[in-house]
Amino acid sequence: MFITPAIVQTALEVGLIYSLVALSLYLSFSILNLCDLSTDGCYTLGCAVAAMITIAGHPVLALFAAMLAGVCSGFITATLQTRLGVESILAGIIVNTGLYTINLFVMGMSSNVSIFKRATVFTMFRGLSDSDFWREWSGLILIFLIVLVMCVLMYRFLGTRIGLSIRATGDNDAMVKSSSINPAFMITVGLCVSNACTGLAGGLIGQYNKSCDINLGTGMVTVALASLVIGETLLGKGSVKKGIIGVIIGSCLYRFIVALALRMNVPTEAFKLVSAIIVAVAIATPKIKEILRLRKIKAQAMAEHKAMMRKGGK
């Protein structure tokens, strides 16, 4: 078979983990209207922190620590922007560059850390039942539950007073200032929350793969952007609920496309090119649809004009 159940399962598992990064980008990019390029380093930071704490024998605590590490990364990025006047793109690049060395320190100056034969949240959850079905699908169920909880929390958070203020800051910070709301504080909170999701994704992928590599996060911004744009293309822009559901669908679909590329024997060296093409196609799709719609309208108008000319000639 070209597509097997195992391939679909793996695509869903990894796609759901990636959806947490896409959810992070949804908050920072779509809602706050900021370009946070620290995602790559923050993702690896979450993985590194979770891996080291998992090795110490605390796999559940490792995920919360990964989220806390993400909060710290988001706080530094926000401080550079709001307190020191650094542009969002440059602030993200600075933090991402600095995190490379910090990640090495966290990993004990090693570029790769293995947590093979260590207890993880996946092995703990799998051990709840001895049935074959549970052992096969427990990983997907656990990831789905974690993502579901995070999505519900994000939806609830954006409906609170602070969440509404964050959304207003992204829409019009001048109006927010006139309403006696501190936009710098809202940006800081938003980036801390978004990077917490990225850190959690890194922690989950580390325990899922049972390893952490210093270059793990390379290209995660592209993956998250692709997932975000695919979701918006399929469901359109609108409510927060639609946006959150869109990033989940987009992430899973993106990973499924990558799985198809693997089945077609695309070399691993070309994966970055595949990711770039996916992003380009996803971003260009709305414009292509608009161009096709206008051409269709123009063709109909031309056909009607010719029909009227023929009737007038008669």
Account of the protein in words:
This protein is mostly helical and 314 residues long. The chain folds into 2 domains: 5-265, Orthogonal Bundle (ABC transporter involved in vitamin B12 uptake, BtuC), CATH 1.10.3470; 268-314. It is 79% helix and 2% strand. The chain is built from 12 helices and 2 strands, in the order ααααβαααααβααα. It has helices spanning 5-31, 39-55, 59-82, 88-106, 121-126, 132-158, 161-171, 173-178, 183-209, 220-235, 240-263, 271-313, and strands at 112-114, 211-213. The chain has a two-stranded antiparallel sheet. The longest helix has 43 residues, at 271-313. The radius of gyration is 22 Å and the shape is globular. The model has no long low-confidence stretch (mean pLDDT 88).
